[in-house]
């Protein structure tokens, strides 16, 4: 077995490995990274991918991206770990340990300090990593992220706010002021291919949200669901012919999710922000999206009160953080 840095020549096999490790659940999803496994990592910033290879076949991977992050009002490079994949034929072996150990050695050579990663609720396979049993120091939990799924919804209201894709300076200054209440948040990425929704009054931004469609970088394809769920979806497909329902997910097809990547609102202007969400859901409906995704940290109680009533269902994800330099 060889453990080495990945190259673009590994693209096809990395895509295949990702598809072999689906997300199980009531609705099971296969994750595709077509056509370029590395494109999602490039969007995040500087990255490194390590693979395990045996008999010219890639059987494991892990990635790390360096993301500038504001921690207690100071900027630090945070090393985001992801894409820990093990081929099903090697489940239960020491392969994951060897891949993680190789990444740790790379991180130490790079002078890395703060490591961060997330894990879906119930993902017990990665628990040994967070407990410090796989070379890395123990991780501390940063809390629960509630990943709300809002259904697209047709809305005939008209709004006075404008949609723009070029006025970054004023918008990102607005977002930075809003995020300054957090102790840990990423430096905003000006190169993100977002659509921006802005509500202005008297030439001042009162509320805004920026949405991102990752379908060209990553696809979650429905591969299975229970018989009862299938009957519900079949019924919804019939009802859609007479009712204004959003797009219905189909087996073998990607779930189209529009992600709210950045957002903010002035205190006392929550209603304007909710109006922006109505507009986003309306546009998602018109463009055939299945869901609009909005993530809220469990301690952000005020925002949770705004978003939860709009949510159809919620995924839970946990953040974990550690330091290599104490």
Descriptive report:
With 326 residues, the chain is α+β, with helices and mostly antiparallel strands. It has eight helices and 15 strands. It has helices at residues 11-19, 39-44, 95-109, 127-130, 168-179, 227-239, 270-286, 301-307, and strands at residues 2-5, 28-32, 47-54, 57-71, 74-86, 114-120, 140-150, 162-164, 184-186, 195-201, 204-212, 219-224, 257-265, 291-297, 311-323. The strands form two sheets. Strands 1, 3, 4, 5, 6, 7, 8, 9, 10, 11, 13, 14 and 15 form a 13-stranded mixed sheet that branches. A two-stranded antiparallel sheet has the order 2-12. The longest helix is centred in the last third of the chain and has 17 residues, at 270-286. The protein is globular. The mean pLDDT is 90.
């Amino acid at each position: 077995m060889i453990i080495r840095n990945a190259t673009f020549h590994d693209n096809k096999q990395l895509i295949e490995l990702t598809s072999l490790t689906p997300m199980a659940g009531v609705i099971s999803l296969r994750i595709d990274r077509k056509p370029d496994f590395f494109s999602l990592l490039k969007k995040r910033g500087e990255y490194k991918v390590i693979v395990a290879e045996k008999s010219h076949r890639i059987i494991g991977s892990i990635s790390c991206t360096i993301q500038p992050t504001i921690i207690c009002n100071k900027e630090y490079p945070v090393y985001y770990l992801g894409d820990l994949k093990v081929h099903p034929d090697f489940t239960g072996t020491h392969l994951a340990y060897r891949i993680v150990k190789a990444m740790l050695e790379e991180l130490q050579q790079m002078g890395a300090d703060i490591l961060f990663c997330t894990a879906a609720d119930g993902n017990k396979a990665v628990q040994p990593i967070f407990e410090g049993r796989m070379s890395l120091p123990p991780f501390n939990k940063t809390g629960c992220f509630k990943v709300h799924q809002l259904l697209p919804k047709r809305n005939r209201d008209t709004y006075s706010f404008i949609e723009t894709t070029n006025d970054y300076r004023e918008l990102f200054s607005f977002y930075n002021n809003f995020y300054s209440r957090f102790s840990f948040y990423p430096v905003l990425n000006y190169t993100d291919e977002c659509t921006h929704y802005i509500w202005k009054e008297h030439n001042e931004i009162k509320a805004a949200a920026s949405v991102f469609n990752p379908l060209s970088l990553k696809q979650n394809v429905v591969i299975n669901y229970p018989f009862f769920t299938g009957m519900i979806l079949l019924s919804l497909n019939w009802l859609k012919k007479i009712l204004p329902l959003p797009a219905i997910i189909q087996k073998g097809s990607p779930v189209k999710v529009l992600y709210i990547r950045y957002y903010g609102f002035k205190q006392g202007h929550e209603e304007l922000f909710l109006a922006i969400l109505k507009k986003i859901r309306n546009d998602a409906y018109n463009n055939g999206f299945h869901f609009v995704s909005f993530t809220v940290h469990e301690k952000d109680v005020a925002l949770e009160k705004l978003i939860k009533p709009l949510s159809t269902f919620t995924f839970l994800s946990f953040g974990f953080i550690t330091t290599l330099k104490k």
